[in-house]
Amino acid sequence: MHIDGQCHGGNIAFALAWPDASPDIPARACDCTFCVKHGGVWTSNPNARLRISVQDPTAVSTYEFGTKTAQFHVCSRCGVVPVASCRLDGRLYAVVNVNTFVDVDPSLLRGFSASFGGEGLGTRLARRARNWIADVEFGTHGA
User: Fold this and answer.
1) CB under 8 Å to 3, separation ≥6 — which residues?
2) Ordered strands of the 60-63 beta sheet
3) Scanning 6, 9, 49, 112, which has the fewest C-beta atoms within 10 Å of its C-beta?
4) What's the rounded Cα separation, in Å, for the pair 2 and 105?
């Protein structure tokens, strides 16, 4: 299944190739203060492929907090956070915010809450390596 997503103005956009064998899309509503304040409801599939394009890199900031092991890609124009990424052992992993999906049937989303506050650093990074999208590319397409 092909899924497009983007921030409100389209500066940060993505194309997600979701494995057809897994039509249900988990939608994790993280309970950390950043995700709550930004409407972060994340999904990933280790067998998915993600291509992220940025029209104007000067209008994107990255935000790190807590363990500073994940970068939240924030559009400076609209304030939306469509993607979070993490580099582990030289490989880029990512999750996408389901609230930034374009024309996806909401009945495919399987929402649940998630809390990672008590998770140790090693456990957190191992979970990301196991569950986050591992085929990730960022590209810039002229402003």
Assistant:
1) 15, 16, 17, 18, 101, 102, 104
2) 60-63, 71-75, 83-88, 91-97, 41-43, 25-30, 109-114
3) 112
4) 12
The C-alpha atoms of residue 46 and residue 117 are separated, in whole angstroms, by 22
| Six token digits for residue 128 | 């990301």
**Average pLDDT value for the chain:** 91
Residue 141 clears pLDDT 80, i.e. is over it: no
CA neighbor of 56 nearest in space, from 38, 76, 70? 76
User: Whole-model pTM?
Assistant: 0.91
Beta partners for residue 102, in sequence order: 4
CATH 2.170.150.70 fits 2-140, yes or no: yes
Spatial CB neighbours of 81, under 8 Å, sequence gap ≥ 6: 7, 38, 40, 63, 72, 73, 74, 75, 97
Tell me the per-residue pLDDT of 107-131, one tens digit each, with 9 for 90 and over. Answer: 999 988 877 778 788 889 998 999 9
What type of residue sits at position 92? L
**Among candidate residues 133, 114, 139, the one with its CA nearest the CA of residue 18:** 133
Percent of the chain with pLDDT over 70: 97
